[in-house]
Write a structure and sequence with these properties.
- Helix 1 packs across helix 4.
- The protein has a single domain, classed as Orthogonal Bundle (Helix Hairpins), CATH 1.10.287.1080.
- The longest helix is centred in the middle third of the chain and has 24 residues.
- The two termini are about 30 Å apart.
- Helix content is about 75%, strand content about 0%.
- The protein has about 120 residues and is mostly helical.
- It contains six helices and no strands.
Amino acid sequence: MNDDILNRLYDVLQSRKSADPESSYVASLYKKGVGKMSGKLTEEAEETIAEALRLEKSPEDQTIRGALRSESADLIFHLMVMLSHHDIPPGEVFAVLEERFGMSGLEEKASRKTN
């Protein structure tokens, strides 16, 4: 997979900033603010974790595997809503990941404390 779907999604989310909150779910989230968006992001993270834990117990269960994929997509979607709200395109997040690539986790964590 490439980042094209995230860039396309970002563009759609940006366009929803001028949409009617009565007819657009995303516009309604923007109108309700960061508190509501954070709540949705937390909810989707919890649901993703729950499915991951279920799959850990039943790794061959394709239904659970599909549920984990679906919840992960919901989580990414709501993260993208939050990023779009703050005008942070996927490329800026990818740039941070690129900077960290090849660096050990401990090294990366230590570098954050000095920045």
